[in-house]
Write a structure and sequence with these properties.
single chain, 289 residues, 9-stranded antiparallel beta sheet, 1 helix
Length: 289
């Protein structure tokens, strides 16, 4: 475990998955969901080199078929720390025998965390270290307690987006794959009240949405603000058909497979194509009050 700490926030990380494991304010209040087998064991997995599900658990690439689990392999991989200071930590993962079985590319994937005041910034870096083209994408999956600090009930909390700005929802299949349909997702006054029934059909996936959202309650001074400029999609989720006391606010650069379609990686939507030596970065920040 590794720690970044200042006068406002303490953040803890695990080299397994380079995962954020705890995010506490100075008074000891835990904001990050701590996992519970009854609902969801995760906390804040990092998604690479895919986001979401693949049809039949696999994809094709140049005539070969490869298997890959939900959200890719990074979340279950052992990273190494390549840089550490009082305000910053950098985790790194490169290809190995296990990754090459499901993803035939040399790469360098870094997860950088920077702590400033009450804000934790996450930056994903992907570099092509091979001699051919690299195809990949990234996403975040942090979960937060609701109610935050145990203050109020789940339904006292809401997501506040920019007022007078709606969004577009991707219509997902019953198996949580993408369909070819979208629908308007109104946000009256920019607000999405939370209820457990919101997630009875699994995740809500938005696009064309504001680039900032705040989890808050009129009965509490606590809040969580997630900023995700540069991420094309936003997933919202908790365990379907449950009273799960958390919500995941998930900035994604891409989405799951199309329903019933086995992806060809070279034509899969939203994949970033890197030439040898090229690098890209995407990220988001979490501010807790």
């Amino acid at each position: 475990m590794f720690t970044l700490k200042n006068n406002e926030v303490t953040a803890e990380f695990d080299a397994l998955g380079a995962e954020l494991r705890s995010l506490k304010t100075a008074d000891g209040t835990e904001y990050l969901w701590q996992g519970d087998a009854a609902y969801w064991n995760g906390r804040a997995p990092n998604l690479f080199p895919i986001v979401g599900r693949l049809t039949e658990g696999g994809y094709t690439y140049r005539g070969q078929t490869f298997e890959m689990n939900l959200h890719g392999f990074a979340r279950k991989s052992a990273f190494v720390v390549v840089e550490k200071s009082a305000k910053k930590i950098v985790f790194a993962l490169t290809e190995n025998e296990a990754t090459l079985k499901s993803y035939p590319f040399p790469f360098l994937f870094t997860v950088t965390y920077k702590l400033t005041g009450g804000t934790l910034e996450t930056v994903y870096g992907v570099e092509n270290t091979g001699i051919g083209e690299l195809l990949s994408t990234v996403g975040g999956h942090p979960g937060f307690f609701v109610p935050v600090g145990g203050e109020g009930d789940f339904t006292d909390w809401y997501l506040q987006f920019e007022p007078k700005h709606g969004a577009t929802a991707l219509v997902m299949s019953s198996a949580c794959f993408v369909t070819d349909k979208t629908e308007p997702f109104p946000l009256p006054d920019g607000r999405l009240p939370l209820s457990h029934g919101l997630f009875d059909d699994d995740a809500i996936v938005l696009k064309d949405m504001p680039e900032t959202v705040t989890l808050k309650s009129d009965k509490s001074k606590r809040s969580v603000t997630v900023k995700y400029a540069g991420m094309k999609y936003l997933g919202l989720w908790h365990k379907p058909k449950s009273d799960a006391p958390y919500i995941c606010i998930e900035p994604w650069a891409s989405v799951p497979s199309d329903d019933g379609v086995i992806d060809d990686l070279e034509t899969k939507r939203d994949m970033v194509r890197l030439k040898p030596g090229e690098r890209y970065e995407r990220g988001f920040s979490i501010t807790v009050v």
